[in-house]
Specification:
CATH topology of one domain: Rossmann fold
Distance between the termini: 29 Å
Largest sheet: 7 strands, parallel
Number of helices: 14
Bound molecules: nicotinamide-adenine-dinucleotide, thymidine-5'-diphosphate
Radius of gyration: 20 Å
CATH architecture of one domain: 3-Layer(aba) Sandwich
Strand content: 15-25%
Helix content: 40-55%
Strand order of the largest sheet: 3-2-1-4-5-6-11
Order of helices and strands: EHEEHEHHHEHEEHEEEHEEHHEHHHH
CATH superfamily of one domain: NAD(P)-binding Rossmann-like Domain
Shape: globular
């Protein structure tokens, strides 16, 4: 199968591509604009596979997308390209409206035209898989309920509102035009190659430099954490086995308060960094957790997310392989083992390389 993956240079997209190239015989076409969040380093050796192709394309650019579909004739689309960080969406929502809503619309239109032109056999097997978030369901504060596939949408942030909007467009294209779509809504991911603006990598990298660990509000907010490689496996299973028109929630049953997550990271660093001189040198006798610094809370901050993943487990046989403890340990170890990846992100070299290879094309 040839899968056109949008956002394949991002955190989750690169994990999906590594999985597909290493564990299957599928072909991959990575369609990515290469924003600040993209890092082709994250693909490692998989990008040298003859089953991998790359197209630097903005999903808002319909003409360029049409050319990509014509050139590669994909059997399926897995759509991950998005602006993905809530804090950035609060500071500047425009890019979120543009990519997440308008970009999804333009991709749906191009995919629909392409799908309508397929022969009967390929038309019946084609899939458009839209990758979304549990944040579309809003805030579970004050209850012990879980998000199910029929929970009403109530997004809080510009990010989650833009993703909710894109989910609605995908459902409309399925119902109105018959495009064979699948939607997945996943909880917070963590793991290797995550850009250090999100909670877990930011805390690891700041701690290693003895910088403050910014805790929004009281740190009592709850997220349901899933290792990115478990998410990648779930996405591949949904694409191959999911029922057209269905939605599948994906989550790890790992509800944790932010403050507890940060303390766990600090404890792992105490254990795994034998000589944590930087932390001690800053006069910090409590070790890394002494760096935790309360800062102003995020406006509109959702207090709790939690996923009921029983449908994907029951119908498609997916269960996560990592516990939060095993996954977090591997993640901290990955950042310790990959100083070159971190250095190129911090220095901006990962982007300068992209500019030298692809600069000026967009
Ligand atoms: P990311 O920010 O790490 O990567 C996004 C990728 O999309 C980048 O490579 C970027 O260059 C690309 N991109 C952005 N705008 C584009 C455009 N206009 N055209 C083409 N490419 C563009 O994001 P991520 O964390 O890997 O998330 C991937 C998807 O999964 C997103 O749709 C996100 O909403 C969803 N999701 C993320 C999480 C999470 O915890 N990170 C959880 C659930 C769902
Ligand atoms: P984040 O990784 O940005 O994911 P999301 O907002 O999509 O859940 O944040 C996870 C949680 O951690 C969220 O409740 C906000 C909080 N947070 C902090 O307390 N400090 C930080 O520096 C960051 C980035 C997040």
């Amino acid at each position: 199968m040839k899968i056109l993956i949008t956002g394949g240079a991002g955190f989750i997209g690169s994990a999906v591509i590594r999985h597909l190239i290493q564990k299957t015989q599928d072909q991959v076409v990575n369609v990515d604009k290469l924003t600040y969040a993209a890092n082709l380093d994250s693909l490692g050796g998989t990008s040298r596979s003859d089953r991998y192709a790359f197209e630097q394309v903005d999903i808002c650019d319909r003409a360029a997308l049409e050319q990509v579909f014509t050139r590669h004739s994909p059997d399926a689309v897995m759509h991950l390209a998005a602006e993905s960080h809530v804090d950035r969406s609060i500071d500047g929502p425009a890019a979120f409206i543009e990519t997440n809503i308008v970009g999804t619309y333009s991709l749906l239109e191009v995919a629909k035209t392409y799908w309508l032109g397929l022969d009967a056999e390929h038309k019946s097997t084609f899939r458009f898989h839209h990758v979304s978030t549990d944040e579309v369901y809003g805030d579970l504060a004050g209850t012990d309920a879980l998000f199910t596939e029929s929970t009403a949408y109530a997004p809080s942030s510009p990010y989650s509102a833009s993703k909710a909007s894109s989910d609605h467009l995908v459902r409309a294209w399925q119902r109105t035009y018959g495009l064979p779509t699948l939607i997945t809504n996943c909880s917070n991911n963590y793991g290797p190659c995550q850009f250090p603006e999100k909670l877990i990598p930011l805390m690891i990298l700041n701690a290693l430099e003895a910088k403050p660990l910014p805790l929004y509000g009281k740190g009592d907010q709850v997220r349901d954490w899933l290792h990115v490689e478990d998410h990648a496996r779930a996405l591949c299973r949904v694409l191959s086995l999911g029922q057209v028109g269905e939605t599948y929630n994906i989550g790890g049953l790992n509800e944790k308060q932010n403050l507890d997550v940060i303390h766990s990271i600090c404890e792992l660093l105490e254990e795994l960094v034998p000589d944590n001189r930087q932390s001690r040198a800053s006069g910090n006798l409590q070790g890394f957790s002494g760096l935790i610094t309360r800062v102003q809370d995020r406006p509109g901050h959702d207090l709790r997310y939690a996923i009921d993943a029983s449908k994907i487990q029951r119908e498609l046989g997916w269960v996560p392989e990592e516990s939060f403890e095993s996954g977090l340990r591997k993640t901290v170890q990955w950042y310790l083992d990959n100083p070159a990846w971190i250095a190129r992100v911090k220095s901006g070299a990962y982007q300068q390389w992209i500019d030298s290879q692809y600069g000026g094309r967009l």
